[in-house]
Write a structure and sequence with these properties.
The structure is a single chain. The protein is α+β, with helices and mostly antiparallel strands. The chain has a single domain (3-136), classed as Cytidine Deaminase, domain 2 (3-Layer(aba) Sandwich). The protein is built from five helices and five strands. The longest helix is centred in the N-terminal third of the chain and has 11 residues, at 11-21. The protein is globular. The structure holds tetrahydrodeoxyuridine.
Length: 137
């Protein structure tokens, strides 16, 4: 599927990420991010970044969505849309890349900016990553 087809197919997911961003709690960074993760069941799980008063305990929108989905019993995932209200896309942090590598490796990443959209995969985001099989080698 080419980029235009993917954007059309997942337009609803992008809209869900934009709506989720409204619920971000980001008093320290003022950088608000929304994510919407599509499970293989067809359900959508949203997340937003949360920054508690003790600053280093915060969590990104992507992991918030993923942990919520797993906690609700979803096991496999198809795509995630991420929107930070910026012109250029916001790229997922290294921690999110590794967590998705372990728990949701097959998602198509749809990074959305107001003037730019990028489609990524785990291979493009985190080449040469650590995988659990490495423990057994
Ligand atoms: N953040 C996300 O939620 N997702 C990203 O892809 C990039 C960064 C959050 C973490 C923190 O709350 C704020 O944005 C600034 O780094």
């Amino acid at each position: 599927m080419n980029k235009e087809e993917l954007l059309e197919k997942y337009a609803f997911l992008i809209e869900a990420a934009k709506r989720a961003r409204v619920n971000a709690v980001a008093p320290f960074s003022s950088f608000t991010v929304g994510a919407a993760l599509l499970g293989k069941s067809g359900r959508v799980y949203v997340g937003a970044n949360i920054e508690p008063g003790v600053m280093n305990l915060g969590l990104c929108a992507e992991r918030t969505a993923l942990f919520s989905a797993l906690a609700q019993g979803e096991k496999e995932f198809e795509a995630i849309a991420v929107y930070a209200g910026t012109e250029d896309v916001a790229h997922p942090c290294g921690a999110c890349r590794q967590v998705f590598s372990d728990l949701a490796p097959n998602v198509t990443w749809i990074l959305v900016g107001d003037k730019q959209v990028k489609i990524e995969t785990l291979d493009s985001l985190l080449p040469g990553r650590f995988v659990l099989e490495d423990l057994r080698r």
